[in-house]
Amino acid sequence: xxxxxxxxxxxxxxxxxxxxRDYRTIRTVMIHDQAHLQPEDLSSAxxxxxxxxxxxxxxxxxxxxxxxxPDAQIVDFxxxxxxxxxxxxxxxxxxxxxxSAPPGFSPATLGFALPCARYGANATVxxxxxxxxxxxxxxxxxxxxxYALAHELGHLLLQSDEHTPTGIMRAVWSRSxxxxxxxxxxxxxxxxxxxxxxxW
Length: 200
Ligand SMILES: [Zn+2]
Fold this sequence. Notes:
The protein is α/β, with parallel strands linked by helices. It has one domain: 3-Layer(aba) Sandwich (Collagenase (Catalytic Domain)), CATH 3.40.390. Helices cover about 45% and strands about 15% of the residues. The chain has helices at about 5-20, 40-55, 70-75, 125-135, 140-160, 175-185, 190-200; strands at about 25-35, 60-65, 95-100, 110-115, 125. A five-stranded mixed sheet has the order 2-1-3-5-4. Zinc ion binds near residues 151, 155 and 163.
């Protein structure tokens, strides 16, 4: 191999690695921990959530928000309409974790997202439901929480309450799904990853 070929080879390698690091930083995600979780559990769950999006080429910064702040207490159940504006990139996406599911949610529900909310918390995850999954299926709590957060954040970023038959946006995760997820991880399907990269 000549010096020129070596230089070209090195340039190609540098280009490949540069593309590999070309994550799209979308914005800031603010987490309001109203369940008062162990800090290490929350930190691990946050890393798990972020890793799901990084596999789709999406990156974001995560900061903690006050659990008692007014923005974390309000929930805007506004329905989406065709002309609903997307979240402004200058406003953090607010995820909150509450200790227990309010009455009325089905036992299998781990949380909910409000893709078209214009104020307040954009998505909520129920710590007690996640803990039950963790205990019943022997999935580490931070892992289960991280995937539950990623699923709800997926609704927000895709601005859709729809589910898919495969991937992290499936509506129901079976026992086998959870075991697969705990071992190998779970991600957005190819179409959703493409949409996420183009939207954000
Ligand atoms: Zn969902």
